[in-house]
Amino acid sequence: MQEVTLRVNGEDYTRKVEGRTLLAQFLRDQLRLTGTHIGCDTTQCGACTVLMDGRAVKSCTILAAAADGAEVQTIEGVAEGERLNFVQQAFHEHHALQCGFCTPGMVMAATDIIRRHEGVLDEMTVRRELEGNLCRCTGYHNIIKAVLAAAEVYRRSKAPAQATAN
Amino acid sequence: MNAHPDGGRSGNALGAGDIPQMNWDQTGPEMKMVRDALFRHVGKPVRRKEDHRLLTGKGRFTDDFLLEGQTYAAIVRSEHPHARIISISADAALAAPGVLEVLTGADMVQDGIGPLAHNPLPSTKFDMKLCAPGGGIPFVGEHHALAIDKVRHVGEAVAVVVAETPGQAADAAELVEVEYEALPHVVDSAQAAAQGAPVIWDEVPGNVFVESSFGDWDATERAFATAAHTVEADFHVSRVTAVTIEPRAAVAQYDPETGRYELFAGSGGAVKHKGELARCFGIDANRIRVHSYDVGGNFGARNRVYPEFALVMWAARRTGRPVKFTATRSEAFLTDYQGRDLRTKVALALDADGKFLAMRADNLSNVGAFCVSLSPLSKGAGLITGSYDIPVAALRARAVFTNTMCTQAYRSSGRPEVTYAIERLVELAARKLGVDPLELRRKNLVHPEQMPYRNAVGQYYDSGEYEQNMDRALELFDWDGFAARKDEASQRGKLLGRGFANYVESSIGSPKERAEIEVFDDGRIEVVIGTQPSGQGHETSFAQVVADMLQVPVERVFIIIGDTDVVSVGGGSHSGRSMRHAGTVMAMASAELLALARGHAAEMLETAADELAYADGVFHQRGTNRSVSLQDLAARLADPLRVVTDNEMHTPVFPNGAAICEVEIDPNTFHVAITRYVSVDDVGRCINPMIVHGQTHGGIAQGVGQAMWELCAIDHDSGQPIAGSFMDYGMPRTDNMPFFISEIAEVISPTNPLGVKAGGEGGTTPALATVTLAVLDALAGMGVEDIAMPLTPQAVWQAVQDAANTQAKK
User: Fold this and answer.
1) Which of B69, B614, B626, B768 has a 20 to 30 Å separation from B39 between CA atoms?
2) In the prediction, which pLDDT does B785 show?
3) Residue B160 contacts residue B146 (beta carbons within 8 Å)
4) Nearest to A131 among B299, B693, B734 (CB)
């Protein structure tokens, strides 16, 4: 057992973990943040995607011990109170979720893509970069639409004041 | 397949005069009002009530539940496709850290736990009835939660280990020593049905345990004997698996004081699972409480009880602690109920003008080691003639045991298989006759004036405008612009192809449903219903229906599902039944509630019931300003303002449509890209178009997935499944799917008060055919005439090589 301290959704947690405990298991079982889902054993489905030090990572690929000292954001830390953030809102508006199991990972991965591209995205870029997140319900159609819409919201919010005014 | 099979019982699904009731005939003033009131919210893309919790990580999926003192189960599984169990030694496992219990099949027998109660024979009034060879009820094989004397497929559960942590359970499972005596195995359905195949069940020496005949065999023979043209083909619709992104899971606890089990397990219907588990344990159903809340995908795979559901319940009783099982993805690939795996030989007879005269089909379903469901075989049997007016047909339907995982209904059970067969056969006929395949289809489609249409195996299609679906799909696809697109692609060195398919499917499903509607004094209206969504948005679309019928805001209506202590009756969600069955019983319940409320309102306002007008949730006494709302009534009545309504409805409906796929093939890499996909779907009345389009998109992806990449590959020599992870099972992904063009056609079904058919599965049903035909079209210039799914680059390369070799020999 090893002691780790992580900042998760703005709060510090110190816990003892087994060497083999994955970050995904740590979040779900020890912190009871069950919004991070586990859908495979091989880091292929992306349901467990979280932001670690600002970057999207599949939390089933990272040992909790290796995440010691990291800052992690999970789906539970995205909304502002009850208010959905712009990515969540776009998923809601565009019906980008059905069963909802892949959704937390999709939202976290999309957030990373949008930020890295500063909101300037086209369909093919989203399709290429979101390829590591599997969904079985939507055929991805509305997910792609939602990410493009969220990117546009992001781009406008970051644009210089005069550009928005024009 | 020319001769009438010996021993098969001849007959249709329906007896003489047994015609489904085509017109919903329940009337009465309240029902009229309810039906007239519909469509304030209905037909609108109301955003989903479910989304907020799912988008903020507050969903309640099975593995999210943590019960106090919870322990973890790991399963020891057979590595043999077929073997006798000689001995099981648990000593080392029991001595491992944290281990509480190791249980085997022998313990299970000792504790009196019986086989899973699957009830595999479709049994509603209008299902195609399947029987044993020679008649009678088929032997289906006892599916025990743990193997007792023999294992019959790789992955079959042999023992369960319970430990304090998941890691300890997994470690100890590896220490359980099982000694086997390997037996000869067979995994392919045709080989299993052949003479001399290894026998999977001693009770069924030839492995074929279902053999039924349908249609008019003599008339079909006569038609084939005199037909100007005949075509025939032999297809295998490959085995795939549902790949719900949430792996299956279950957690149970047992209360020794009350003798009650409590099971949390996402499924396709908690009430059904409660009943089946009660039969498995030999106890009264009210000693089991099942919870099924958010379900991370179903597609048929979760409709039947899994062995682990019984195992965690039993282990919880034995250990006195709650026990959880969560499948790994490898376990899901190995032991989730799988889909398809149908062999079909089909033949079509045509006259000199291309009019279809008769059809023959010989279908063989691979059910795996135990018969969990015969739905795919039965559903397909009713639809072999597809969307076409074929006067006579003869069908033999058989099911066979093999040493493979069990198959079950999967995303449009049985229908994609037969649609693939008929649409490929029609294309073959068009080529043989040298006519335009679309014109051949048009000439033979069932026309609206023929509705209700009795097909050649006795199914009654309720309504539909098939040719209009075709026209609309062609227009949306820009069929006429294809030549220019093909030229453009060819300038880039690419091969473009297009594939068209019509489809019709049947929605039947469990016939009983109950709705309970209660109005509360805060204006809240709760509807308890026994369907089980897994992404279909029932909490929204059902609320839309009830809100319209009771004329209240949709925000005030809440749908309650998934706890069997609350939901007493319910058929679950399968076969496109949910909106039709729930909508119908909710309409009846709404009418009853309004009748009840009207009586109370009249009493309260001291007037006659027929003096009251009802609008926007309020009863008004005509010609006065006196009124009382549903909410007021709920607040002022001593008893709850509540109704409980039951309905039983057998009449099937027949969703239908047309779809077109365009593919682009790189002749250097043989990579196939989907460049355009159009789907037109007659779903009957559409309650929420946003949800229905979403369902269609997902349905298309699953059909395209099977055609392009997905395959539960099994090595025939070793009997080993070789697709055990996402590394070796190809999936639809963001970068291999296009945007879809989908359109909803609403031809109102006369069979139910809402006029609903069903949505979603229509995306899947034609897709195997459209994709395959598109690839064949693209490769036509290279002499390729046939190709089997999945259409991987290797398969395409092989087909091109084979065609070149054949041509070289000529």
Assistant:
1) B626
2) 95
3) yes
4) B734
**Closest Cβ opposite residue B59 in set A28, A88, A100:** A100
Find all residues with CB under 8 Å of B491, minimum gap 6, and list them. Answer: none
**CB–CB contact B735 A143 (8 Å):** no
What percent of chain B is helix, strand and coil (3-state, nearest 5)? 30, 25, 45
Task: Flag if B737 and A141 touch (Cβ within 8 Å).
Answer: yes
Chain B interface disruption, residue of A63, A97, A136, A142, most B CBs within 10 A = A136
Chain B, nearest residue to A18 by Cα: B167
Complex confidence, ipTM: 0.97
Q: Cβ of A136 and B63 within 8 Å?
A: no
Contact B393, B216 (CB under 8 A): yes
Q: Do A140 and B66 touch (CB under 8 A)?
A: no
Contacts of B144 (CB under 8 A, 6+ apart): B105, B108, B114, B115, B116, B307
CATH of domain A86-158: 1.10.150.120
Distance (Å, whole) CA B724 – CA B732: 17
Residues of chain B with C-beta less than 8 angstroms from the C-beta of A29: 66
For chain A, the domains span: 2-77, 86-158
The distance of B52 to chain A (nearest Cα, Å) reads: 8
> What residues contact residue B747 under an 8 Å CB cut-off, 6+ apart?
B463, B464, B465, B682, B684, B757
> B328 near A41, Cβ under 8 Å?
yes
CA distances, B100 to each of B63, B91, B163, B316 (Å)? 21, 12, 5, 11
Nearest to B694 among A35, A95, A107 (CB): A95
The two three-digit tokens of residue B394, written as one number: 């003869």
- Record the tokens describing residue B539, joined without a space: 């909490």
Contact state of A136 with B694 under an 8 Å Cβ cutoff: no
In angstroms, how far is CA B615 from the centroid of its own chain? Answer: 39
Q: What is the gyration radius of the CA atoms in chain B, in angstroms?
A: 27
Name the residue of chain B whose CA is nearest to A41's CA.
B329
**Phi, psi (5° rounding) for residue A118?**
50, 35
Instruction: Please answer yes or no on whether A136 and B245 come within 8 Å at the CB atom.
Output: yes
* CATH code of the region A2-77: 3.10.20.30
Fill in the amino acid letter for B128. Answer: M
Average pLDDT (B299-308) is 97
> Distance (Å, rounded) from C-alpha B103 to C-alpha B682?
51
Is the previous residue joined to A104 through a cis bond, with omega within 30 degrees of 0?
no
pLDDT per residue over A59-106, tens digit each? 999 999 999 999 999 999 999 999 999 999 999 999 999 999 999 999
How many whole angstroms separate alpha carbon B409 and alpha carbon B431? 33
H helix runs in B184-328, sequence order: 189-193, 217-226, 270-281, 307-319
**A3-59 pLDDT, tens per residue?**
999 999 999 999 999 999 999 999 999 999 999 999 998 999 999 999 999 999 999
Q: Which residues of B touch A84 (CB under 8 A)?
A: 52, 55-56
**Residue B700's closest CA among B758, B762, B657?**
B762
Q: Which of B63, B245, B690 sits opposite A45 (nearest CB)?
A: B245
Residue B41: predicted pLDDT: 75
Quick one: DSSP state of residue B454? E
Residue with tokens 């219903």: B529
B466 to chain A, closest Cα gap in Å: 25
**Please, what are the domains in chain B?**
29-59+509-517+528-640 (3.30.365.10), 62-183+249-325 (3.90.1170.50), 338-508+652-809 (3.30.365.10)
Nearest alpha-carbon partner for B658 in B507, B772, B505: B505
d(CA A99, CA B709): 23
